[in-house]
Design brief:
Strand content: 15-25%
Number of helices: 3
Largest sheet: 4 strands, antiparallel
């Protein structure tokens, strides 16, 4: 056993929790397991007293926001298409609300990008 540990760090950089990676047979599998622990916080991977890596949370980039914006627009267009093809009045109204809601969300993301509230 290689004795790998992952330390979950708080916003201040201090250890919040320790996870023993008991199923890590080698350094590569330990790295993969540690990467899976990154969820809103940084994680450090150690083998005994040797620091192997630090995985940092990834902040959304403009490219990520652009991809989200495009997906919202595609989903809104799809909802509008279903609305236009629906023969049932209730379904048509529901897909119309969904279409408008997705467009509003896309407009908000786009406005945030243009205003500079989204950092690169």
């Amino acid at each position: 056993m290689q004795d790998y540990r992952a330390f979950i760090l708080g916003p201040d950089g201090h250890v919040q929790a320790r996870v023993d990676l008991i199923y890590a047979d080698d350094e590569n599998s330990a790295r993969e397991q540690a990467k899976r622990l990154v969820d809103g916080h940084d994680v450090e991977l150690w083998q005994l007293n040797r620091k192997i890596a630090r995985s940092r949370i990834r902040s959304k980039t403009v490219k990520d926001y652009q991809a989200s914006l495009e997906k919202l627009r595609r989903d809104a267009a799809e909802a509008a298409l279903i609305r236009d093809l629906a023969t049932d009045v209730t379904k048509r109204e529901m897909f119309d609300r969904l279409h408008k809601h997705l467009n509003r969300l896309a407009d908000e993301v786009e406005a945030a990008m243009k205003s500079g509230k989204v950092s690169p």
